[in-house]
Amino acid sequence: MVRSAYERGVTTLTLDSPHNRNALSKGLVAGLRAGLAQAAADDAVRAVLLTHTGNTFCAGADLREGSGSPAELAALLRSIVELPKPVVARVEGHVRAGGTGLLGACDISVAGPGASFAFTEARIGVAPAVISMPLLPRLDARAAARYYLTGERFGAAEAARIGLVTLAAEEGADGGTGASGKGVDALLEPVLDGLRRGSPQGLAESKRLVTAEVLRTFDRDTDSLAELSARLFASDEAREGMTAFLERREPAWVP
């Protein structure tokens, strides 16, 4: 479910689980953690590039597995934040719910014009609990309130404006890229070049500085937010919400 490749100091981890739109199944979470651990142990690796196959970067929790393990998701997100090497996300598809948590945990992220984003948890009777640890320290507070509560979709330019991604290659009126004239790979090139030029110690200590507040949030909130997530997913409302989603109908509470 997670393919690994190495080139010139960068390990690329590709989410490759098209049958469930790269949802955070037990298998995908385990594969991603293993890939991150291998990259951390390899002295030749300067950075990790996280990307995907298909038109979805990550659809969030695998609802056919229920909530999965909130504690395992928290551990995955923390492993990205704590990795002593920068993690860069390359997104050219849809990102929903728990998938946004992966972006929040990454150090740098670049989104293409086909990317779309949504925090859809409230629509199925739960909340973006565990993923809030890497997200809320980095998101615009008013935008977080809007999108957490409404579940609206938004595009790459808005994701960059609110701090969910670092750079956006937005589609222009002519069908090309936006004002910058650069696609995803063109935006990534100077980022990866800069990371390749960093020393292992310099990258690790610089990352430690910019992730300190996020890690304090994990230290403080992991247990309580994992418990909240588990409780919500076990509720009657969540069961109705997940069933309605899988049956492609509105849940009972929609007027």
TrEMBL record:
<dbReference type="Pfam" id="PF00378">
    <property type="entry name" value="ECH_1"/>
</dbReference>
<dbReference type="GO" id="GO:0003824">
    <property type="term" value="F:catalytic activity"/>
</dbReference>
<protein>
    <submittedName>
        <fullName>Enoyl-CoA hydratase</fullName>
    </submittedName>
</protein>
<dbReference type="InterPro" id="IPR051683">
    <property type="entry name" value="Enoyl-CoA_Hydratase/Isomerase"/>
</dbReference>
<dbReference type="InterPro" id="IPR014748">
    <property type="entry name" value="Enoyl-CoA_hydra_C"/>
</dbReference>
<dbReference type="InterPro" id="IPR001753">
    <property type="entry name" value="Enoyl-CoA_hydra/iso"/>
</dbReference>
<comment type="similarity">
    <text>Belongs to the enoyl-CoA hydratase/isomerase family.</text>
</comment>
<dbReference type="InterPro" id="IPR029045">
    <property type="entry name" value="ClpP/crotonase-like_dom_sf"/>
</dbReference>
